[in-house]
Structure formats: C-alpha cells, structure tokens
Write a structure and sequence with these properties.
Layout: H1 2-20, E1 28-31, E2 37-40, E3 46-49, H2 51-59, E4 66-69, H3 77-80, H4 93-97, E5 103-107, H5 113-120, E6 126-129, H6 135-148, H7 152-173, E7 180-185, E8 193-195, H8 200-207, E9 211-212, E10 220-222, H9 225-231, E11 235-240, H10 247-255, H11 263-267, E12 270-274, H12 275-279, H13 285-296
Parallel strand pairs: 3-4, 3-5, 5-6, 7-9, 7-11, 11-12
Antiparallel strand pairs: 1-2, 7-8, 8-10
Amino acid sequence: MPFRRGLAALLLAATSLLAATPAGAGPIRVTDAAGRSVEISDTSRIVSIGGAVTETLFALGLGERVVAVDTTSTYPAAAEARPDVGYMRQLGAEGVLSARPSLILAAEGSGPPEAIAVLQAAGIPFVTVPNQPSAEGVAALIRAVSAAAGEPEKGEALAARTKAEIDAVAAALAAAPKPRVAFVMTPPRAAPLVAGRGTAADAMLQLAGATNVFADLSGYKPATPEASLVAAPAVIVTMARGAAPDAAMTAAIAADPALGGTPAAKAGAILSFDGSYLLGFGPRTAAALRDLASKLHPGLVLPEPAAGSNG
C-alpha cells in the first residue's frame, strides 16, 4: 500500500510537470536582443524581469508559469503576488537563482552587468528581451517573449492586434493640433526632472500627438526656472502609482519654483498616470495612448479598442 501511494504521488507530480511544460518536438532556440543564441528546453518556471515582459506573459495566458518578478512588475495584481527579485537595474544573481527558474526573461537595460554575467553563466537559459518605446518595439517585445515561452502563435496575434491599435490612434491624431506638453518626474523631496528626447515619455508624447517642449534636452534632466519659462508648457503630464490622480504630486509641481509659473501649473492643467501603464510599452500601450490622447485632445473621436484588448 505505501508503495502504491508513493507511485501515485510520483505520477501526480509527473503529470503536473507535463501540464506546466508546453508540448513540443524539442528545445526552442531563439536569438535574443543581445544577439545571443539561447536554447530553451523548459518554460515551466519563468523569472520575469521588466514590467512589460511580465504583462506580456500574463496577457498571453502564461501567468501560471511566472515564479518570480522584479519590482517594476506591478500589473496585473497576480504579478505583484509573486516573489520579488529586486529592481531590474539592481538585480542580485543569488535572489534570481533562488526562485529556481528554468528560464529567465529580462528586458533590455536590466543589470548591473556583473549580475547579468553571473546569470548568463549559470546554465539556465537567459533571454534578453527587446524593449524599445515605439509601436514596432511593443510588437517586437511581445513576439520575443512569446517565442521564448514556446507560444509564437499567441504572441503573433497579440503583437499584430496591439500594434494595429497603436497605429490607429496615432493615425487619428495625425491632423490634430499639437498641444505643448512637458512630462515631469517628481520623486519625493527632490527636484523635478523633465523628459527630453530619447525617453519613453518623449516617445509617448509624440504618439499622443503632442509637442514635447523639452525635446531639445536628452534623457531626463532637472527643470530650471529659465528653461521652464521658455518652454511654457500648456499641459504637464506626470506619474502616479495607481489609477487615481496624485494630488500630492500635482501640488508639488504647482508649488515648484521651476514649474509653478508655467501656463500648465497656473491653469491646473496637470495630468497624472500610473507610470508603468503609461510608459511600459507593452500590451497595454494602446489603451494608455488612447487615455492620454483623449485628455490632450478633448472632443476628438478616437478608435475603440478591439474586443479582448488589454486595458
């Protein structure tokens, strides 16, 4: 009898493993964003690093395979319930490996390089996922994640639909007047940073049919009263955690010496969005773009999302 119980337990464990591991003729081989050829034989235990990577796995219906995430992976709620391996740019190899992954998917920009080198040498498939802030970049990310997870067909459908929705909103905005907008990051008790060219915020403002008044800057730079006076944004967009407007951040911008005198601050034209939603450039980007565009272009009719879209 004990033997039968032990055999039953082994069979149950084997059945669970087979259910978690996608069926296929053999190992998957992909070329990642770093140009590395990676062979993947087991996708049942994925450590997902990067909010857009994690969102994509869940959007593909593969959330049950995700065993750990990084701190930028805040959506969906089920992702936040997973063990946290740390901030994507300050990873510790030991923390990632402690999740016993069979596959590590990490967005471009993950680091530090020393930790990535250890993870790549650990004998566990490590795939660097492209993460560029554009409609094409979103599609490439979705395709890369789905290919590494062994679900390219699902990924192709999601990538094509998401890119088509982003393109449709951008096309609807093509002839609309471009409001002058500044994107401001205001960490607590710190000087505000504004987004210049080459940032995800600049890319989102362009897609939303806006003129980034700080596009002459590169990256995120501290705002100065002189530059803000010349830039004169009519609208300020900033980040908040969650869907509700961040009253404290809005008040801080309005009271800031560099930004308080701008037309946007004086008129109270300050919009706040969840940062990972607006700047994640993943499956929810079409919805985020539509939300931002609707506030920057009130009254403009924008295309509705397709059934089953993430938002």
